[in-house]
Amino acid sequence: MEVATVVEDAVEYSFAMEYHGPPITRELPRAVPINVDRIPVASVVATPSFSDRLSLPVVQPISATDILSKKPPKDLELCSSPAELLTVSPTSVIAFESRNNEVSEDSYSKELGLGTETTVSPSSVSNAFEVREPESCHGNDVCALSGELSSDFECCNGDGEVNGVKEMRCSSISLDHSCEFVGGLESSGALEASDSFEKSREFSGSLCKSRLSSGFKESVDFNESNRTDWASNESVLSMDYLSSRVSSRKFGDVNNESGCDVRRAPVVTFCDIESDDGNTNEEFSRSEPEVVRAKKEPAIKVRKGACYRCLKGNRFTEKEVCMVCDAKYCTNCVLRAMGSMPEGRKCVTCIGYPIEESKRDLLGKCSRMLKRLLNDLEVRQIMKAEKLCEMNQLPPEYICVNGRPLYHEELIILQSCINPPKKLKPGNYWYDKVSGLWGKEGQKPSQVISPHLNVGGPIKADASNGNTQVFINGREITKVELRMLKLAGVQCAGNPHFWVNEDGSYQEEGQKNTKGYIWGKAGTKLLCAVLSLPVPSKSSYPFGEQVTSTNSRTMPDYLEQRAIQKLLMIGYDGSGTSTIFKQAKILYKDVPFSEDEREHIKSVIQSHVYSYIGILLEGRERFEEEILNGLRQNQSCDGPTLAGNVNANGEETLYSICPRLKAFSDWLLKIMASGTLEAIFPAASREYAPIVEELWGNAAFQATYKRRSELETLPSIASYFLERAVDILKPDYKPSDVDILYAERVTSSNGLSCVEFSFPELAYDDDADSGDLHDSLLRFQLIRLQAKGFGESCKWLQMFEDVRIIIFCVSLSDYDQFATDGDGNSLNKMLLSRKFFETMVTHPTFDQMDFLLLLNKYDLFEEKIERVPLTQCDWFDDFHPVISRNRSNSNSINHPTLGQLGFHYIAVKFKRLFASLTGRKLYVSQVKGLEPTSVDSALKYAKDILNWDEERPNFSLSEHSIYSTEASSYSQ
Ligand SMILES: Nc1nc2c(ncn2[C@@H]2O[C@H](COP(=O)(O)OP(=O)(O)OP(=O)(O)O)[C@@H](O)[C@H]2O)c(=O)[nH]1
Ligand SMILES: [Ca+2]
Question: For the complex shown, is ipTM > 0.85?
Fold first, then answer.
């Protein structure tokens, strides 16, 4: 039957759209039949004379005659008392059941039988339901209910029967509140949805389109937020356009599976917004409906290119776009049309609506127009709000994992894990929880995400639509994966079933032994890159740390539940990033370094000590040479007799050593020159420990050590270890935290390291306000990336687009230091740092991101600036401090030290540079990397910047200005 015939005498009806969202896995509300005769009926009110602009929903009251004329079904029971009419049982639900797909009008009317304990007032029903003609109704049983304001039972046909009601849009059904009607309906009737969700699932906006189909019950938690739909007539209307197309094919499928539970089956596929891969699903074509989620239309239609408000302009006029309805506004109108933008760039009427998915990538990316119109703080506040406000978050049910739409908690787990799926978009995905492999349904894996996340359903064998008869963790793999396995040397004969762990170790199913590591071979990663297959991310922890939902549940606020906050720390080589990183581990981790790490670090430290000794021995040779040269000259002046043979009279210089030590020295220097030091030590440590002891006690060595400041290649930290060289080189040496902190090159081999932490609660602080508690719940991930990592390409940086703040380290003491750049030129290290800073600050990935500049090694700087003028560095040539005469006066505010002045001067230099590049404000702090408290406060400052950024949206725009002065410890 055509739907059009269903609603024959409808006066002012409209049709709901079919539901095309992901399958609903919960009970759907049962519609409780209505005792028509007992329905209190409001009198018809004259159409209120609201102007068109006033967006208030108008309800057509049900008149008794209307109802009666629609011949209520005979099996509707009657209610006996008016009181009952206002009572709504908590179990009252709306049920639509059909025993088979051939739903007759009769069967529906029967099933709409009255529940005994439930009564529903007509007005609530009329508000809640309106059957609209689905734009694309296929099949006679497809009709839709939408919770629109409408007149009475237009879903009833002439016989008063509801026809083939299969689709219901819950979004705008406000059930647990009596609806406030404009038409003067006195009704307070409400239809309550039972809260039978295991997890209360709140639907909002268009998200809660639930699909009702055969044998399929759902109950929906209707909450307050749904009522926003009522607030605006415009919105309600526009919601209607959130339509979708469903191919008849799918309906055929569903209908043919009569009586089968389709809860867990993927009902929809999502249009691939990115539609990146051209090879999409060629072989893979499940008979699934294609869904196109239509968008909220702009309130008005305008000439192409014109501004939606003033109607002026052409397509060349610069315009800002509404993230929801795509309305475009010119410079003059945008602020009026969008107001204070509490949810980012949306027309005022679109606030509270989900964004158009295709615009998700634009979230938080500010346009030039806004940058011109608003000040920096306002822009950042709006962009933050746009990115973080709840309404703009990805709706969990748009993400289907292994055939099941996600719950809110699951999406959070997914997004906040160590290796979340990149650029997650609505769609159907498969996820292999054991290995962490992740891909689009029907396609090869695209990523390795954190394993063991409790999201989605169990993986299906055909998840990636493989046809190789080779299985990994229960999934039949794709051809390209099989090719990779074969090239990686994995035996694939005999259609094996592999069990692959997150570390890439694999076993054949049923066997105990690990057969090898898939990613272990040198060429495999390259191979994967060539085949565009994912490899485990370097940042992944060996044991994929899982963010459990229990964890996130302790944090009430949505924003806190979100992701862990990522702090990316970068800096030019030698700036101290690894020191600060280690300091953070020591500060915030109960076990900063594992036994294995310590064992590894021990050998690194030991080989360092040998290299320091080597540098000293080299120095000793130099000093000895110098003295001998001096002697030679003296002697040549005295007379020719002794020339050429300095030791002829057996004279020894202060720097001479005995032949045995000399032999060791020669050998060590040779090893160092060949660059194999690390390979030989510390294995040789035991053997050479005694000779080192002897060396340390040697007068010539000690004399050299006294002159160590003359040895450029000896790092200043060397003395810390050399003083204890004898102990350190013993086999049973165990590096302490401080040893590790001071040791160079112990953090990571690949240039990337990360640590997850939160700031510990202050136990002693009794009256700690909730702010402190709040802070201790925030989780951070400090990621340190070595400057070398940028060498080859900045492509890496795209991995970090979700970091919240960039911590850029500069060593203050670099101003008189030189290093060779890529072209072999010797350049001032401060200038090299500046160049790197400029590159990072202007990198597109970090656009709009906060930068915190840590001016490190303040201790060295304070000392150095007294000896070496800051003007040694060209960039600082206008540093002319006015120094207080009374330098001994320790009142640092009135009489700043040269160090303080220098620091402040450099901070301002960087701030100006930053402002000239970005137009924004740079945060700066000084730090002493070797001092725990100093690093602690620097990192807390980073946290404060983030907190402060998050809180800003709570203040109106005008209030921001007061913060701007507090924003930085050192404003210009
Ligand atoms: N005196 C002093 N030395 C520091 C400070 N911070 C770091 N250092 C030393 O500076 C040297 C370089 O620091 P690293 O932490 O290795 O810095 P990095 O070069 O950015 O990091 P990697 O190259 O990855 O090791 C090390 O010897 C540190 O001990 C500081 O605040 N004061
Ligand atoms: Ca270093």
Answer: yes
